[in-house]
Amino acid sequence: MAGRFVPRKVMDVNTTDLDTALRAVADRGYSYAFRTQSYRPAYCANAAQPNFNDAYSSLMISPRWSNSLPWWEAQVLQDQLVNELLPIYDAAAQDAGAYKIEANWADKDIKKSFYAGTYERLGYIKKIDPEGFFYGITSVGFDRFAWDSAGRLCNA
Predict the structure, then answer these.
(1) What are the helix (H) ranges across 34-145?
(2) Per-residue pLDDT tens for 95-104?
(3) By the 8 A CB rule, do 70 and 114 touch?
C-alpha cells in the first residue's frame, strides 16, 4: 500500500490530470480509496507537515493481494508501486506529500513526502536522542541507519 495527499490546489484547478493518473493506477490492477480531510488551522507551531493542512483528501493505493501468494510477489508489487505507480500520481499532484501512517516505507524521498520541509527542524529537536535509541525506517534520523543482510535496521 502507498498513500498520498490530494492537494486542494489540484481539486480546485485541474482534476483532469488527477483523473488520468488514477485511471492509470486502476488499469494496472491496483485499487485506491480516498479518506476525507478536515482542515483546522494550527493554533501554534507544530510538527505537522504543511501538506497535511493543504490536503483535500488522503489517497491510498493498494495492489490486489492474497496471503496465499508467494512472498516474492509482494516484492514485485512493492517495486511496481514505488517505481511506476507513485511517479504517475506524483506527476499529476506535485508535492502532494503523504500521511506517514498511510504511506509506503520504501518511498523514494521520505524527507520530502513525509515531512515536507519539517525534517531539518525535527532533526534538530531529535538531538536530545544522540545515540538513536528511538528509531524507525521512516522516522526522523532514519538516514543514520542501514539494513543488514538479515533485514535488521542497524547503525550505519
Answers:
(1) 50-53, 71-80, 86-92, 110, 119-125
(2) 899 988 888 8
(3) no
- Residues 6 or more apart whose CB falls under 8 angstroms from that of 131 comprise none
Which residue shows C-alpha cell 488499469? Answer: 27
At residue 4, the 3 state secondary structure works out as strand
User: Are the C-beta atoms of 62 and 103 separated by less than 8 Å?
Assistant: no
Q: Which of 91, 22, 90 is nearest to 61 (CA)?
A: 22
Residue 87 to residue 21: CA distance in whole angstroms: 9
Q: What is the pLDDT at residue 83?
A: 94
Task: Yes or no: say if 52 and 5 are a contact pair by the CB < 8 Å rule.
Answer: yes
For the stretch 66-92, pLDDT in tens is 888 888 888 898 899 999 999 999 999
Question: 111: closest CA among 122, 102, 101?
Answer: 122
Question: How buried is 103 (Cβ within 10 angstroms: 0-12 exposed, 13-18 middle, 19+ buried)?
Answer: buried
The answer to whether the beta carbons of residues 31 and 114 sit under 8 Å apart is: no
